[in-house]
Amino acid sequence: MRAVFGGNREKIDGQILPTSLDQDELVGKSGAKPVRPVTRINGQRVYFHDLARMAWPDKTESHLAFVARVDARTARRWLAEDSEPPAAVLGVILAEIMRRFHQR
């Protein structure tokens, strides 16, 4: 059991979270969802699958599975936003996008 001292906090499914978070980030099937930082560009939310498809427009799942050295099923889950990919995979995707941008 955790004790929280000071600040405005609330407890959801055993996680203690600040109340300043967007409620749409917290609500899921079971009532609570792991909170991810929201990435926004010009006010628009950017999703992981959009970045992956920008890096590899064709055979996105296969390329993602190859560079991450995981099963294609795991890559499919990342693209469907069922699970969170590791930060290293996001770094590889961003490096690929930047490589393609600088080739122009």
Any overview of this molecule?
The structure is a single chain. The chain has 104 residues and is of the alpha+beta class. The protein folds into 2 domains: 1-35, no CATH class; 42-104, no CATH class. Helix content is 43%, strand content 12%. It is built from 5 helices and 4 strands, in the order ββαββαααα. Strands 1-2 form a two-stranded antiparallel sheet. Helix 2 packs across helix 5 (87-102) and helix 3 packs across helix 4 (72-79). The longest helix is centred in the C-terminal third of the chain and has 16 residues, at 87-102. The radius of gyration is 17 Å and the shape is globular. Mean pLDDT is 75; it is low at 25-29.
Keywords:
4 strands; two-stranded antiparallel ribbon; globular; alpha+beta; 104 residues; two-stranded antiparallel sheet
Give the C-alpha Rg. Answer: 17 Å
Regions with little confidence, pLDDT below 50 for 5+ residues: 25-29
Counted up, domains total 2
Q: Supply the number of helical segments.
A: 5
Residues in helices, as a percent range: 40-55%
Order of helices and strands: EEHEEHHHH
Shape category: globular
How many DSSP E strands?
4
Mean pLDDT: 75
Percent of sequence in beta strands: 5-15%
N-end to C-end Cα span = 55 Å
Query: Reading side by side through the largest sheet, how are the strands ordered?
Result: 1-2
Question: Quick one: biggest sheet?
Answer: 2 strands, antiparallel
Structural class: alpha+beta
